[in-house]
Design a protein that fits this description.
BirA Bifunctional Protein, domain 2, nine-stranded mixed sheet, Rossmann fold, about 25% strand, YbaK protein
Length: about 600
């Protein structure tokens, strides 16, 4: 069919078809709505995507994407492809199944641990189902990239990924199988038009465009790289009260970061706090936890010190003891930055063998074991602290830094650094006098500056302009496509069902037909649907011979942005009932001639 050209075509929203939209009958597709949610469904997206017939569970964390969901997923993917292509990336496809040997140099099979799906083929060869594809793409580039003239290069794919989640939950938000876009860029320099930094900025803008076009309310926040690795990263988070991630925001500067990455502004501290009590030992049987000990001693957790034993990721590991206030949590990434080398929680058996009494460790262990002692500023504010006694089933009160570790402090062996998770109410790191505020969000995208982590591990190098061998610099950029679908529902719903942004709605318009078997009714319905489709709108016709009330409830549930109701009565009056899904009021009776333009206006045209 040819496009219908009208003077108003220029007002058509950009996400509508340049040519005709599609028309589908409810009776000829699969939309199994139900009044009951799955028994384990708690998040709104899980409840409504199941009830509205978008998904059906196959097994724990494994779902069928039914026709409505698949249409939305394809629209999200199309937006992703368009923006990635505009940013200069090229699409390809890598296998989901990969030999475990690909992980031998990066050791990410160890980093991922039980989250990595592994299997053995009939020949006894080990393989993994890819959670991401850094190793596969790097291995490919080892033979494909030979000259500096081939840079920069950015490749992406949209593919099914796998994570062996111990407790899949929240529907599509925490799956074992999910759809993801992952991209990888390759460079021989950091700066300049061909450098990693320029590509990273380009991907940042592309992601901003993608989520804006999808109609999402989102924030871009500084983030930790996690098991992917790398030097810098940002998460793109859909803002919603039910979000699983905590975002800390400075309202004065606009600074935003997730809780693992958020910095804390300057806090006053000093070792020179006069002691107020003598040290006293207390019997605390079977009380290695802060809360139980605090209650036993009649203290608040904020009056205790928490000492976490870690070790450095070096050829000859060093012990690190990180000390924070009892009501705070140690941030491993911040400890890494403070120490200047990677760290990990010390294996309990090894720590015990070295002399640490896990659960009862105090800063005074520096007298017995050579270690790096790192302290958060808030753990220095008190004159008297309760802490472990370095003896099983015992704690002490009255610990004072200036008195009890004076010589170590004088020798510079006690390092002070921001090593805890930030909280709402902490001072902003970007604006003096401002404090951090807490929001909730759902991660839908993550971009990383990988640097040479993978290229050095796997031998990816080329000759530069001076014919010197150089490790290739990489970037990595991921979007959870199926996760975006679910996060959108978390962001946009009411008590009755989903409210889709027009750009990723399965259909832009739903026509509810009252008495579809009445003479001439379906002819008028198809005429209206055709006019809407000619203006680029996708149309779902509910032609079921069912009660109007039931069809209205289903319409709210599936959440198409625009709704028309046609019946013998409205057709006789040359009118149509019109309602935008986002409106709170009842359907409005409008002239039939206004229907198409009313739909365009409601869709943002």
């Amino acid at each position: 069919m040819s496009t219908l050209n009208t003077p108003n075509d220029s007002a058509r929203p950009s996400y509508l078809h340049a040519s005709n939209g599609c028309i589908q009958l409810w009776s000829q597709t699969l939309i199994p709505t139900t009044r009951e949610a799955p028994g384990d469904a708690q998040m709104p997206s899980h409840i409504f995507l199941a009830r509205a017939g978008y998904v059906r569970q196959v097994g724990a964390g494994i779902y069928n994407y039914l026709p409505l969901a698949w249409r939305s997923l394809k629209k999200i993917s199309a937006i992703v492809r368009d923006e990635m292509d505009k940013a200069g990336a090229s699409e390809m496809l890598m296998p989901a199944l990969m030999p475990i040997e690909l992980y031998k140099d990066t050791k990410r099979d160890v980093d991922y641990g039980d989250l990595l799906f592994t299997l053995e083929d009939r020949h006894g060869r080990q393989a993994a189902l890819g959670p991401t594809h850094e190793e596969v793409i790097t291995d490919l580039m080892c033979t494909a990239l030979t000259s500096y003239k081939q840079f920069p290069l950015n490749l992406y794919q949209i593919q099914t990924k796998f994570r062996d989640e111990a407790r899949p939950r929240a529907g599509l938000l925490r799956c074992r199988e999910f759809i993801m876009k992952d991209a990888y860029s390759f460079h021989i320099e950091l700066e300049g038009d061909a450098g990693l930094n320029a590509a990273y900025d380009k991907m940042y803008q592309a992601y901003t465009n993608i989520f804006t076009r999808c109609g999402l309310d989102f924030s871009a926040v500084e983030a930790e790289a996690g098991p992917i690795g790398g030097s810098a990263s940002h998460e793109f988070m859909v803002n919603c009260a039910s979000g699983e991630d905590t975002i800390l925001v400075c309202p004065a500067s606009g600074y935003a970061a997730n809780v693992e990455k958020a910095e804390i502004g300057e806090r006053a501290w000093s070792f020179d706090v006069e002691p107020s009590k003598e040290i006293e030992k207390h019997h605390t049987p079977n009380m290695p936890g802060i809360e139980g000990v605090a209650e036993h001693l009649g203290l608040d957790a904020s009056g205790m010190l928490k000492s976490i034993v870690m070790r450095t990721a070096e050829e000859t590991p060093r012990w690190v003891v990180a000390v924070v206030r009892g009501d705070h949590e140690v941030n491993e990434a911040k400890v890494r930055d403070a120490v200047g080398v990677g760290v990990e929680l010390a294996p309990e058996d090894e720590a015990k063998a070295a002399g640490f009494v896990i659960g009862y460790v105090s800063p005074r262990m520096i007298d017995r074991i050579e270690q790096v002692l790192v302290v958060d500023p808030d753990a220095l504010a008190g004159a008297s602290w309760a802490t472990g006694a370095d003896e099983k089933d015992h704690h002490i009160t009255g610990f004072n830094w200036s008195r009890d570790l004076a010589s170590h402090i004088a020798d510079g062996k006690v390092k002070v650094a921001d090593i805890r998770n930030a909280h709402a109410g902490d001072p902003s790191p970007r604006a003096a006098g401002a404090i951090l505020e807490e929001r909730r969000g759902i991660e839908v995208g993550h971009i990383f500056k990988l640097g040479t982590k993978y290229s050095e591990a796997m031998g990816l190098s080329v000759l530069d302009k001076n014919q010197k061998k150089q490790a290739v610099i990489m970037g990595c950029y991921g979007i959870g496509v199926s996760r975006t679908l679910s996060a959108c529902v978390e962001m946009s719903h009411d008590d009755n069902g989903i409210i889709w942004p027009a750009a990723i709605a399965p259909y832009h318009v739903q026509i509810i037909v009252i008495k579809p078997k009445a003479e001439g009714v379906m002819d008028e319905v198809h005429k209206l649907a055709g006019e809407l489709a000619q203006r680029g709108m996708d149309v779902l016709i509910d032609d079921r011979d069912d009660r109007p009330g039931s069809k209205f409830k289903d319409a709210d549930l599936v959440g198409m942005p625009v709704r028309f109701i046609l019946s013998p009565k409205t057709i006789e009056a040359d009118s149509v009932e019109f309602k935008a899904r986002r409106s709170d009021g009842r359907a409005e009776l409008i002239d039939r001639a206004q229907a198409v333009e009313s739909a365009l206006v409601a869709l943002g045209g």
